[in-house]
Amino acid sequence: MNDEVGREHRESERDHAQQAFKSGRRGQDGGTQGEEELRAAGRSLAGTDKPLLEAEHLQLYFPVKKGIVVDRTIGQVHAVDDCSVSLSEGETLGVVGESGCGKSTFARCMVRLLEPTAGILRYRGRDITHLGRRKLELLRREAQLVFQDPVSSLNPRKRVGQIVGTPMRLHGVDGRNGVEGRVKELLGRVGLNPEHINRFPHEFSGGQRQRIGVARALAVDPKLIVLDEPVSALDVSIQAQVINLLDDLQDDFGLSYVFIAHDLSVVRHVSDRIAVMYLGKIVELSPARELYSKPIHPYTEALLAAIPIPDPEENRARERVVVGGEPPNPVDPPPGCRFHTRCQYATDVCKEVEPPLAEYPGGHLAACHHPRSLEQDDLEKVSRSPLSPLSSAGLLPNGKESPVPQIEANGAGGGLRRRLKRIVPV
Amino acid sequence: MAERLLEVDNLQVSFATEDGVVRAVDGVSFTLDRGEVLAIVGESGSGKSVTSMTLMGLTRGVNSHFGGSAKLKGKELLSASEEDLEKIRGAEIAMIFQDPISSLSPVHRIGDQIVEQIRAHDKKISKGAAFDRAVEGMERVGIPHARGRARAYPHEFSGGMRQRAMIAMALSLSPSVLIADEPTTALDVTIQAQILDEVKNLREHSDSGIIFVTHDLGVVADIADRVIVMYAGRVVEKGTLDEIFYDPQHPYTWGLLGSVTRMDREPPKRLPSIPGLPPSLIKAPKGCHFRPRCPHEFDRCAEVPPLEARVSDAPDHLDRCWLSVEDKRSRREVEGRIGLVKDTVAV
Questions:
Q1: In chain A, which residues touch B (CB < 8 A)?
Q2: pLDDT digit string (tens) for A233-286?
Q3: ipTM of this complex > 0.95?
Q4: Nearest CA to CA, how far is A147 from chain B (Å)?
Q5: Minimum-distance CB partner of A311 among B196, B261, B339
Q6: Which three-class secondary structure state does DSSP give residue A276?
Q7: Strand B64-72, strand B37-41: pairing
Q8: Is pTM, for the whole model, over 0.90?
Q9: What strands lie across the sheet with B75-76, from one edge to the other?
Q10: Is residue A259 within 8 Å of residue A92, measured between CB atoms?
Q11: Which helix (H) or strand (E) segment is A211 a member of?
């Protein structure tokens, strides 16, 4: 048992969760009231009561160091700053944002490829934030990754059979016909010729290499695949092939996806929900369909407007709002709303008060003081989402104040993670 | 009528490799007038970049072989001497590359790199005057505090700013032809929109001809006047922007148009895609190069279809497909005007 998270009143419940974890079921643990509330938020968002992976107030700061002999930390890159999200089984969560917004870092944090500096991670209801290497083995098997660049993510000196077979050997997974038989099965499943098992990666085209990457991820029966811009490096017609393949595989194997992309056109087809990130924060989290018809955050609006329409006449007809400038430096993010420096609707309040993630009807969350494309009714029904960053204010877009959960200090030096356990319910 | 800048006729480029001869460009013809934007569209390996680089004389080498002709204002480029080409590069034809970080020198200041180009072509201009011109050029493409930024190194610039610097450099000598080889592919959408605005601005305020190489049909719809669609080294369709988008004739163009996601429409259940892969240019299929992937192929496709006008009232709309125009229109299944191809071309 991990001492760091070990707290007496959670001991028994964790044992229970662990058993459930091992047997492949989701833990039915209760948790403190604060957590309960957050869990409830995840439930209502995903429309199901089976969150596979939950990230609560996840934060990752990278230190910026200077000095030749002795390193001094002179600043911190706020790569992921208090982001919360939950992913249910069989769901696809799209994560979208410009380069440098922290989307890849966030996704890697979610599967503990990077260690978050604060926040809580739960996999099947079990706290995995501080689990050791051995205890993480199940997560390592069930959560797989597919990377952007199909050239550098495959070892050029290994044959396809080894590339796809190695994870199976490591995790002791083998099919009816042994490792080789299963590799062949998988190659066929992703649309490659099973007889090419002895070829090297360079003998394949970009799209085919990406299929090898997908086969490797599938090799160990994962539940969750993090797709880090899987089609960005491919040609348009090949992109469509790979996306259709991913879609089929999801149905066949009941997979959950975290799909990272740098623009909104690619994720549209695959996502159930989409999180839009800007400078380390989630600014909008919404069911996919709503995001395109009713973008609430001005940044989402700008991202949508920036995509050219492949129709000359409509293109000529439309007034395009081009967002000027570039994202600010994440070492020193602007106070208040992080987008205010580029936002055309920004007012004084945006410069000072960090907006909470406000929850609108239909499970649509957005962090903005001047929400777009909303009816007056929607604006009245708004409430502060428990997924809001802890540092955000209680001020809602309709001018009302909502109660902000108080964080009880947990003695000196209590990090955010520890403090979180004591969120006083409002 | 605007001045004709470029006249490319039956251009052929092939490279000898250990595995055989790669016919990268196989009979490409087009013209470019002043003040016009010509888009060359195609997937990787279609020969679009080789075509544009050949115009700059950048594909010359012991293993390359050229055919046909490419004339700049009546002057042959393919047989031009290296000295002549040096005078043309930058001053007459300038190029913007896809990846600005690898096309700028990492060890020289941005301003100095622009000054170097100005002074290479104009020996009489003083360093100070050239620097002023460089700063002016950087201001014109929207780099803030240009005078200070000119003293920065490329790594101190963001991706979008670097691309702006590349454009400033390319425009520093007011070339008559500007070739932009996928200038926005490596950029974020918001920055892409800014750069495209710069290009449109440029078209209005200068009288250069622009060749815009890209694979993104959305970008094409935004800026092009005329379009060339390339596939496996050949031009498969050529026409004005509206002809290509509203009356596409070649099945490959249909596939391309169908694969584009449209933000303003409900998405189809399955993304339409073109099955298969582009052919190897060493052992290209006989006849129509698109035949192995084409759902409409028939016997006659074993013969290479000529690039000719087949639509009756559009003499400049050329395509390379044997199907009759009526046949194409009925088979095309492009709904309404364009865009939503039904799920006919499944994987």
A1: 98-99, 191, 205-208, 235-241, 243-245, 247, 262-266, 268-269, 292, 302-315, 320, 322-324, 326
A2: 888 778 888 998 999 999 999 999 999 998 888 888 889 999 999 999 999 999
A3: no
A4: 17
A5: B339
A6: strand
A7: unpaired
A8: no
A9: B20-33, B4-17, B64-72, B75-76
A10: yes
A11: helix A206-218
